[in-house]
What we know:
Number of helices: 7
Structural class: alpha/beta
Strand order of the largest sheet: 1-2-3-4-5-6-7-8
CATH class: Alpha Beta
Largest sheet: 8 strands, mixed
Shape: globular
Amino acid sequence: MRVGGLQRWTSIDFPGRLAAVVFCQGCPWRxxxxxxxxxxxxxxxxxxxxxxxxxxxxxxxxxxxxxVFSGGEPLLQTALxxxxxxxxxxxxxxxLHTSGMYPDRLAQVLxxxxxxxxxxxxxxxxxxTVTASRGGAARVLESLLRVLLSGVAHECRTTxxxxxxxxxxxxxxxxxxxxxxxxxxxxxxxxxxxxxxxARWRAELALFAARFEDFEFRAA
Length: 220
């Protein structure tokens, strides 16, 4: 495992759990609003050895509930399934944050995962532009369908501002996700991005919330 960082305690990255977050080095996408640009380069020197992470976790047995693999894109690393198995062997639950770029690798780890945060970066026709890559839409949709069929607890989340794509396309995406069976959707404000005026935005949020069993807006 190439580890770009370790957050030793969090109460927000794994719903209902106290967890540590392992930040995996490397990502195939180049989203303009990326929160962790230092993790993009897969060839960068790891910041902490995997054995050091395991040593830390051994000392937190009974104190933490779970471990979240985030990134970067964790599924970029072929060592991820073995790392998840080691974490489970210590008695921790496993969370995964993923962009859905690798549906076959996602299928491989689904039996090892207790919760998934799946980023739906944009409507399918906008995905390549937002991620500065090609061919992601079909892969992300396949990943979404695999997660929905798996029964693994999850949320989908989308980061948005009008500078990325129009509001009506965000509504179209929300309607499609709800139609596919997504029950929990988190809408996240893009850092540095604008929003409609407060009165209109409250009305828009009410429309989003009406489509989902569980909806949350996360301001920047």
